[in-house]
């Protein structure tokens, strides 16, 4: 019989085995003693892996073109069984079962299935396995694997020298290779820096995680090596030196001046003029530079040194060379010379030198190549042989001057002719006249000349001349004059047959027939009780003061003279303006003016006492004119004032009653009832030094130790004593010229202001009728 089934032991397969089998089979009929043996079939490797929990896909990351190790794409699902499964996988083969098969030929992400074949040829498939293929230099992912031989590369910058380049992510690079050049950020140097550099260098081979940092070299500006860069006031302010390199911003401005006007010039390197400015390196000792000098014009003597002396400069400063006027020799007497005379003769100062010169005072060389000179004899006579003159000169072509001992040469005097032609008659010319006309000697030549008698060329380049007709008349068409001349700008002379030309005669303008003739006023001295003059017989004369108040009225006498008695209390004062207005019957009135002079007291002349001035303020020589012999107690004239005209370029400098016209390049204007003058003329008028700083747009006035600073965009004056003064008119910029309110600036330095109607002598006087501002420096 068979063994009852329940009698068999419970045979269980060991781990790694399956399907328990009895040998012989349980159903076998037993006929003799029998052994039944239990055994089990061993599991396949695949089954073993499954029994251990199975496999999971593992992401693989490789570089493009690299070999793929698919075995890295599987692993044990259960961490506790990984070692056992690893032992089984060690003898297995893993391949890609994906259709089409995956490769590393192209970068990207590829999902697929792996086939694991064990040594017993059992197999397992692992699905959803990811393959990541990268190129060196790709952005480093944050949630995906990278190749095992990948190095992380980051880029940083030196913030001071490199501009912000925005967000730049880390990249991965295959170890043993350099970062692709195109993967570096575009690093740009900040302003003031140059030459971007990467550390380490771009070509560096990366073997581990690496930081590359961009930086730049600070740019050093090559500045000029010039220490002194001079320029004239009319030049643009220089920004570069002679080497064409920029001038450093800390250079200061130094001004060199020659005073008074026309006396000389200052020389700074290659620039010369009455004023030369220079950009100068702070700390420069100007005394070390022989290229800084001054030179006197003829008739002037140069000072012993600059004021102040040249020194080390650390801030804007002005250096002045003040020249003194030389005393001129007296003009010699020259006798007329005839065509047969052998000598040029005349009279002069005993022992002085007489020199033959041209009209500019330059010596003329004789036939021996030397200047032609002689000495005045003890009797005051002199003579120069005609045959000493060069062949191209006749006596009446030359001039002579006299040089007295210790004095400058006199003005040149033309040698007159005994045979000089008669002066022609020239008729006044009106603005609409087509011809200049006159009368002369029949057949003589009338020539258009300048005031020295030199012919003026017409539009055809030839001298303008005509011949006096048989009736003694001549005319010259106005349209023959050059474009820059009008009839009243020229002169004419007459040359009679066989004679020298006459003296030149100016062409005068026609007087409007409806205007009264202009009266004449004789000199008025302070305190005079009678004012006199000349006029047209029978015409009415009205004499007024400079405020328009009538002093007296009269008629012109038959002999052409007139006089007005000055009422008590209205006696003229020195410096007052007296006006005489003449009215002829049926005609428009005309006026003439004169300035009242100081009265001199007989006696000896005391040495004048000159008011002290700040050493930086320009000073001028004072000339004293004493009429006749004076006695003890005489007064010396030392007067100075300036007259500015609104909307006119010309202004007057009145020194000791002698008026000199000057021209400005911008006109004074009125703004907010304030007279606005250019900086330079305000400074001259109030006796202050002025410096203009174009960079800060600031004007600095200095006088008597006090400094006033005006920033032209402000309406305030800041003083060196700490005070601030509000102006009632801001500075103006007109055609690149700065104008400031003269009264505001002047008041700071103690000058008073008013008008001609208030009856008070002020330093600054406004004349509303004449639209003038007069600034009195010394009344």
Automatic annotation (TrEMBL):
Pfam family for this entry, one: Cu_amine_oxidN1
Chain residue ranges for the region called Disordered: 332-504
Basic and acidic residues bias spans: 357-368, 378-396, 449-460, 470-488
Cross-referenced InterPro entries: Big_6, Cu_amine_oxidase-like_N, Ig-like_fold, Mao_N_sf
Ranges for domain Bacterial Ig: 518-595
Superkingdom of source: Bacteria
All copies of domain Copper amine oxidase-like N-terminal, residue ranges: 661-752
Protein name according to UniProt: Uncharacterized protein
Native species: Peptoniphilus faecalis
């Amino acid at each position: 019989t068979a063994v009852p089934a329940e009698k068999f032991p419970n045979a269980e397969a060991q781990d790694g085995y399956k399907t328990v089998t009895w040998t012989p089979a349980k159903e076998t009929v037993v006929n003799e003693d029998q052994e039944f043996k239990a055994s089990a079939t061993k599991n396949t490797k695949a089954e073993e892996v499954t029994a251990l929990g199975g496999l999971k896909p593992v992401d693989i990351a490789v570089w493009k073109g690299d070999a793929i190790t698919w075995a890295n794409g599987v692993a044990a699902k259960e961490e506790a069984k990984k070692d056992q499964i690893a032992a089984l996988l060690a003898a297995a083969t893993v391949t890609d079962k994906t259709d089409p098969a995956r490769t590393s030929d192209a970068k990207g992400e590829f999902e697929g299935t792996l086939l694991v074949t064990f040594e017993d040829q059992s197999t397992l498939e692992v699905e959803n396995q990811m393959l990541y293929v990268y190129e060196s230099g790709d952005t480093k992912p944050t949630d995906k694997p990278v190749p095992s031989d990948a190095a992380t590369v980051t880029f940083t910058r030196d913030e001071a020298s490199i501009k912000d380049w925005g967000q730049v992510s880390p990249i991965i690079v295959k170890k043993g290779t350099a970062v692709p050049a195109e993967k570096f950020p575009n690093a740009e140097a900040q302003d003031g820096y140059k030459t971007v550099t990467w550390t380490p260098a771009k070509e560096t081979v990366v073997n581990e995680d690496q930081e590359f940092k961009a930086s730049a070299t600070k740019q050093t500006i090559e500045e000029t090596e010039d220490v002194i860069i001079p320029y004239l006031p009319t030049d643009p302010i220089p920004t570069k030196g002679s080497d064409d390199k920029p001038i450093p911003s800390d250079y200061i401005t130094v001004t060199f001046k020659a005073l008074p006007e026309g006396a000389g010039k200052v020389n700074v390197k290659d620039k010369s003029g009455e004023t030369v400015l220079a950009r100068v390196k702070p700390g420069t000792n100007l005394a070390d530079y022989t290229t800084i000098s001054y030179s006197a014009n003829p008739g002037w003597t140069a000072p012993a040194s600059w004021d102040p002396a040249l020194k080390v400069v650390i801030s804007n400063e002005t250096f002045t060379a003040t020249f003194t006027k030389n005393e001129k020799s007296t003009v010699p007497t020259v006798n007329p010379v005839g065509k047969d005379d052998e000598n040029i003769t005349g009279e002069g100062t005993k022992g002085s030198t007489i020199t033959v010169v041209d009209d500019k005072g330059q010596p003329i060389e004789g036939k021996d190549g030397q200047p032609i000179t002689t000495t005045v004899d003890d009797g005051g006579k002199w003579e120069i042989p005609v045959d000493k003159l060069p062949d191209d000169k006749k006596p009446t072509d030359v001039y002579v001057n006299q040089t007295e001992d210790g004095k400058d040469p006199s003005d040149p005097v033309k040698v007159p002719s005994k045979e000089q032609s008669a002066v022609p008659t020239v008729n006044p010319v009106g603005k609409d006249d087509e011809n200049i006309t006159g009368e002369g000697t029949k057949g003589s030549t009338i020539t258009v000349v300048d005031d020295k008698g030199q012919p003026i060329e017409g539009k055809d380049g030839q001298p303008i001349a005509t011949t006096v007709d048989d009736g003694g008349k001549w005319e010259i068409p106005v349209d023959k004059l050059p474009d820059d001349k009008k009839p009243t700008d020229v002169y004419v002379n007459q040359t009679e047959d066989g004679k020298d030309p006459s003296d030149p005669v100016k062409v005068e303008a026609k007087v409007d027939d409806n205007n009264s003739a202009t009266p004449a006023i004789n000199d008025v001295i302070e305190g005079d009780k009678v004012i006199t003059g000349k006029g047209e017989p029978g015409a009415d004369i009205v004499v007024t003061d400079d405020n328009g108040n009538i002093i007296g009225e009269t008629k012109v006498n038959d002999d052409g003279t007139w006089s007005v008695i000055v009422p008590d209390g209205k006696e003229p004062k020195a410096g007052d303006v007296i006006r005489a207005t003449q009215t002829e019957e049926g005609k428009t009135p005309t006026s003439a003016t004169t300035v009242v002079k100081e009265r001199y007291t007989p006696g000896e002349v005391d040495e004048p006492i000159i008011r002290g001035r700040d050493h930086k303020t320009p000073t001028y020589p004072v000339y004293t004119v004493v009429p006749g012999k004076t006695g003890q107690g005489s007064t010396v004239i030392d007067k100075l004032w300036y007259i500015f005209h609104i909307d006119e370029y010309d202004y007057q400098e009145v020194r000791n009653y002698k008026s000199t016209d000057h021209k400005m390049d911008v006109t004074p204007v009125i703004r907010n009832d304030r007279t606005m003058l250019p900086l330079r003329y305000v400074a001259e008028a109030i006796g202050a030094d002025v410096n203009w700083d174009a960079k800060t747009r600031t004007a600095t006035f200095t006088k008597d130790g006090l400094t006033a600073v005006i920033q032209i965009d402000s309406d305030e004056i800041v003083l060196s004593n700490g005070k601030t003064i509000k102006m009632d008119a801001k500075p103006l910029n007109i055609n690149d010229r700065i104008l400031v309110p003269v009264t505001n600036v002047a008041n700071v330095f103690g000058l008073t202001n008013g008008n001609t109607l208030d009856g008070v002598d002020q330093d600054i006087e406004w004349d509303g009728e004449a639209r003038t501002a007069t600034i009195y420096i010394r009344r």
